[in-house]
Amino acid sequence: MILVTPAAPAHADEVAHVLAEAFEDDPVLAGVVGGPAGPARRTRLLHLFGALVRSGPLRAGTVDVARREGDDRVLGAAVWQAPGAAPGLVGHLGQLPRLLRVDGPAGLLRAASVQRVLDAHRPRRPHWYLQEIGVRASARGLGVGGALVAARLAAVDGQDAPAFLESSTPRNRRLYRRHGFVETAPVRGLPGAAPTGMWRAPRSERATPPG
Q: What global pTM score does this model have?
């Protein structure tokens, strides 16, 4: 059985490792950290996700981790941004030294450029935002990603709030559609990547199945 719980500060390093492994080949983040896939890129991603996890989302309780019942090992993690949270890099300025280890000032400028494009495509209506979600390679196919999404969306539905994300692959979009997301439009302006925006309306605005 897969259990999903809010991450504790002690999970920060493990969550960063899980996400760095999961996103090594992601085209959006390749434009941030630079360089070919391999150990150097994964190290840069580790610094990037270490900064992300230790900033606003972890303090706000919006980082979720998935584990097997009776096992403390983190199999997957999801980083969400709540409505009204500081956008973009603003919420991560306290982690500036760690961000600079991604690829120095040049990497920080690339990250800011990518973030500006993503922010420009986000809906103006306040919403929950799935920033990142990743699963260990050894745990893929076990339903970990679906469990992470479902757990947070249950809370989102409890608030009758909408949610938004970007997805880079058809496989992931199929998963998100099963959880009520619909495709909006491609995100244009990113080097080497064109993820698709996906929106999930509040529970009260979604069509009620007949019966």
A: 0.87
